[in-house]
Amino acid sequence: MKGCILYFSATGNTEYVARAIKDEFANNNIPCDMYEVSKNSGFEDKYDFYVFGAPIYAEMFPPFYTEWVKKHITKGNGRKCIVFSTQANTIACGPSTFAKELNKIGFEVVIEDNVLMPNNYYLVMFRKFTEQQVNDTLKKSKDLARTLVDRFIKHENQLINAKAREIWAKPVFKLFLLWSRKWAKKSLVADMGKCTRCGLCQKQCPVNNIKVNKDSITFFENCVSCQRCVHKCPANAFLYKDKVIDQYKLPKEVF
């Protein structure tokens, strides 16, 4: 038996949980591959089970993630899977909403969960976690990964009841998508004196919303506000509302 963890991670949070899940399966002698969907190359649907994971954007998974999965895996064929989300809140209906779509194409979703992670969205809302809060949260998320894998192996179901939450979450999500399309264009500017023209932001943008020019960086109107560009820039060359950004970085020792 071999599984695959299909995930998207903008700043490292979801990758951290994906690695923790992979390690727990390995501890039980079950191999798992990891595949980050924005790489968009070389994927084959050849696995016995799947783990699906993505960050929460206004209660839901980002559309480019769910669309990628449905494009590359058209039939579940009864395979069991885990669906998890990462967010700075304790609950969101993204996993249960996406689980319904997976069940429709023949998957059997047996585990759904929300994994609390350090807030990486502090440019827009909520506070940045303290170092102690980060360390405590990472420990709890790793413990939760162990629990999820243990329940999956023991064939124990764990599903989220989010029917009531979905009633208001879906319209909120639609408004978020409208707002986010112009987020980078309205909020970001590049300090071209610091920019090295490495092109990393353009290459790693999951929705092709960035173009690096000789003397400027162009943002289009397809942004999802994942903020990968600002936090992954090796020169920290982006300004948010004309201010230098305090980049989100997980402790180096966690990877």
From TrEMBL:
InterPro entries: 4Fe4S_Fe-S-bd, 4Fe4S_Fe_S_CS, EFR1-like, Flavodoxin_CS, Flavodoxin_dom, Flavoprotein-like_sf. It comes from the Bacteria. Pfam families: Fer4_9, Flavodoxin_5. Residues 186-215, 221-243 form the 4Fe-4S ferredoxin-type domain. One of its GO terms (molecular function) is electron transfer activity. PROSITE patterns: 4FE4S_FER_1, 4FE4S_FER_2, FLAVODOXIN. Keywords: Iron, Iron-sulfur, Metal-binding. This is 4Fe-4S dicluster domain-containing protein. The lineage of its organism: Bacteria, Bacillati, Bacillota, Clostridia, Eubacteriales.
